[in-house]
Amino acid sequence: MNEPQLALRNLRKAYGALVVTDGVDLTVQAGELHAIIGPNGAGKTTLIHQISGLASSDSGQVLFDGRDVTGLPMHKRVRHGLARSFQITSILPKFSALDNVALAVQARSGSSFRFLGDASLEADLNEPAMECLNLVGLGARAAIPAGLLSHGEKRQLELAIGLATQPKVLLLDEPLAGTGHEDAQRVVETLRRLKGRITIVLIEHDMDAVFSLADRVSVLVYGRLIATDSPEAIRANAEVRSAYLGEEAA
Amino acid sequence: MSPIAETRPVAITGQRRRVEWLPVILFGAFVLAPVFAAFSGAEGYVLSLLTRVMIFGIAAMSLDLILGYGALVSFGHAAFLGIGGYAVGILAAHGVEDALVQVPVALAASALFGLVTGAISLRTKGVYFIMITLAFGQMLYFLATSLASYGGDDGMTLAARSLVAGLPLLKGDFALYWVCFVCLLGTYVLARSIVASRFGRVLRGSRENATRMEAIGFHPFRYQLVAYMISGMMAGLAGCLLANQAEFISPAFMTWQRSGELIFMVVLGGLGSLHGAVLGAAAFLLLEEFLPEILHMLGFMLSTDMQARLVENWKMVFGPLLILIVLFARGGIMGMLGGRHE
Amino acid sequence: MTATLFLVQALNGLQFGLILFLIAAGLTLVFGVMDFINLAHGVQYMVGAYLAAAFTAWTGNFGLALLLALPSALAFGLLLEVLIFRHLYDRDHLDQVLATFGVILFLNQGVKFVWGAAPLNVPVPEILSGSIEIADGLLYPVYRLAIIAAGLAVAALLYGLVSHTRVGMLVRAGASNAPMVAALGVNIKRLFMIVFGFGAMLAGFAGAMVAPILSVEPGMGDNILILAFVVIVIGGIGSIRGAFLAAILVGLVDTVGRSFAPNLLRLVLDPANASQTGRAIAPMLIYIFMAAILFFRPAGLFPAKR
User: Which of B28, C132, C170, C274 fits a 20 to 30 Å CA distance from A20?
Assistant: First the structure.
């Protein structure tokens, strides 16, 4: 466990004069569930964009499995096992839930430059996809066009798509955003089941979920990490309380 | 992403598609048409009109492949028609009259042009893509007008239709009709297969949400580029047929207005169903052919002079008709038939 | 001799570039502010030329005709906006392409209907006819110099309007972030109308200015429209500055390229081949130029949108 699964070195991103992430250093061990919390506008989503490759970094490095992936575009990072979900649901609305997931399976199984044969009938793609849907509790909704799913179901689908890429590290950007109590419970249950099997970096505003799930918690304020520690220690950290938890309470 | 294609060609997994009657009826009509043509008394005219319909059907369908399924509004598609046509014409001028050479050369040239212009155009999005494909189409048009040894502005007449394996198989109008039919059916089956395939699924997914596709590990650019090349090759084939049908080639094959007409055919038929594009091509060409006569009939109460002016200026009716169709008949003919729309 | 020939070609290129700029300026603003692709912009140039021709025939005075043609072109643009374009702003680009394509079909035939299919000729106005010596033994037509002067004046005026007036500020803001401007409570509908009408008037002005040196005929706006597209793509959509620079560049590359490509090729090819190849390559030059620029800067030289 010496080699961290994911390491950020002095990662920085600015939009014009606005510095969004400022010298972020972070290591995440294999199998860890690492939560990143922070007030709105702290730069959490931008950080996920930088780790996943959707946004480029102005300086610093992203090391994944010990290799530097900073210069790789998102689609290549995914193929190495660094997958993500989106805060604002990003699915293919006209594809069925199953096809959404099967497409993610397709991305990692063989060439997609195949021009013959109906892809939606390939059992090799549909079976693993169905497993992922069952894992998040969407098995019964497989045939529904994704655009017609409820908001909570779309969040679950988002998670299933991420899982179907068979990631070593899964970056989750507020998987509970906008979900009702029951849907939230279901997603938390799914994450609990995944915990330990894959490495998860979780951004979330729901503190109950964060403190019950996370192995370690990092606090991001104005683009800087002010603390990284166990959930208990973070809860007790005075600086964090004033910078973040205090603000929430006020 | 602009929500260009509203049709949903995706089959739900596990259920077999129900039989689609529309393509069966459409292709059945093309099979039966020559029989009726023989009785119509204007056999040559009917055959040549329908041959043109099928050729433009191939071209429009090839455009639908990237427009309907990839949301790529290519405004230079007529360039591929021109490449196909000039491949036939230029090779014939140098004594190579066999389609077995001409067609592969046309396909290779189309693929190459698609590769180069696509690689540049696809780096851009939206309005930029539309204008850049338009500009590349125009570039080829001007190139053709400056080919003085191949007719320049005026184009050139082919001495004869292409041979097939040294035999004058395309000489008769019936023979050409059936060759075009086979090409239309072949490209249709191929395009249908591509749309449903793994490749087609990536293309359709990229249309809906390119960022999502990248987040699961696809690079949409590569798939869009290959789709653009395939589409260009199909249109190139249509160009070869068009040169043989007209026994003439000219830069007019690839004016930007022609590219606009191809887009219109696809939209008129209904985006994203392939056979809709063929229907659209048929509707467009038949409207163009018969609108003057329809106007002549409609203008029966006008004075002869006014009637003549109306017929002569039929495009003044055609243009507004186009605008009205865009504004009010969303989904095109396929939409009106209620076919695959949901 | 080559130096003077070059000077003449450069002046021709400048003149052509300025005409292109007048057309591209309206087009790039309409694009930038409204995200509206208007293929019918070229026919507004044609209509401007026809109006100038008609008014010249009626009044017998080109200057007076120009004064009449400008408000007419403006009115015509506004009419099209109210009748058709306004209903297309929230449609996708494909619908806009098709509907404005329909407008082209209609108007190209429409001018034939009104003025006949034969090209119209407009005489060069008396005071601007003839040539003056601009360098040793080099005569250049006064009217073309007048076009250059008028083009530069309009460019300066436009620059002042866009950078120093309230409407100009809104236009610039709209080009980089349209929803923001709407959110500020600006009457976006009226802003669109102003931009559209103004763009139509500029295109009409360009058409009127070239009426005495080109033949006024149906379809004359079609090919220049594509060049205007090339200009705004190179310049960056929504950028007046980009459109100006790109228009001059395109004008120069096209005009100078056409006369010098064969000469340059003669250095590497035998004369017969050189002139044939040169003639084939010259019309492609601006498109190759565009491709090269886009390869390095996919959003053009001065992208307005962030």
Answer: C170
pLDDT, residue A235, reads 87
CA distance, residue A21 to nearest chain B CA (Å): 22
Same domain, residue pair A130 and A66: no
* Cβ pair A52:B10 closer than 8 A: no
Q: Which residues of A touch B190 (CB under 8 A)?
A: 115
Q: ∠ at Cα C171 (C166, C176), nearest 5°?
A: 130
**Average pLDDT of the segment spanning A123-135:** 95
Rounded to whole angstroms, the Cα distance separating B112 from C184 reads: 49
How many domains does the structure of chain A reveal? Answer: 2
Asked if A78's CB is within 8 angstroms of B198's CB, the reply is no
What is the phi-psi region of residue C140: left when phi exceeds 0, alpha when psi lies from -120 to 50, beta otherwise? beta
Q: What is the mean pLDDT of each run of 10 residues along chain C (306 residues)?
A: 80 94 91 86 95 94 93 95 89 89 91 91 87 82 93 92 85 75 75 89 95 92 91 90 94 88 78 79 87 86 71
Contact at CB, C31 and B127, closer than 8 angstroms: yes
**How many Å from the N-terminal Cα to the C-terminal Cα in chain A?**
40
Give the ipTM of the model, two decimals please: 0.91
Interface test with A, best of B216, B225, B273 (most A CBs within 10 A): B216
Clarify whether residues A147 and A43 are in a common domain.
no
pTM: 0.90
Residue B18: what pLDDT? 58
Q: Choose among C92, C102, C226: nearest Cβ to B138.
A: C226
- Say if A233 falls within a structural domain: yes
CA distances from C96 to A5, A32, C178 (A): 50, 52, 18
Reference C9, options C153, C144, C149; nearest CA is: C144
Mean pLDDT confidence for B298-312: 81
For residue A122, give its domain range: 92-165
| Whether B75 contacts B131, CB under 8 Å | yes
Q: Which of A165, A191, A207 is the last residue of a domain?
A: A165
Domain with C62 in it: what CATH number? 1.10.3470
* Helix or strand (DSSP H, E) at A52: helix A44-52
Tell me, yes or no, whether A191 and A221 share the same domain: yes
Partners of chain B (3+ Cβ pairs below 8 A): A, C
Q: What is the CA radius of gyration of chain B?
A: 20
Residue A181 lies in a domain: yes
Cβ(A21)–Cβ(A50) below 8 Å:
yes
Reduced to 3 DSSP states, what percent helix, strand and coil does chain B have, rounded to the nearest 5? 75, 0, 25
Which of A152, A148, A121, A147 minimizes the C-alpha distance to A136?
A: A152
Residue A87 lies in a domain: no
Domains identified in chain C, total number:
1
Question: Can you say how many angstroms the Cα of residue A234 is from the centroid of all Cα atoms in its chain?
Answer: 21
Q: Report the alpha-carbon distance of residue B52 to residue B25 in Å, rounded.
A: 19
Q: Return phi, psi of residue A7, to 5°.
A: -135, 130
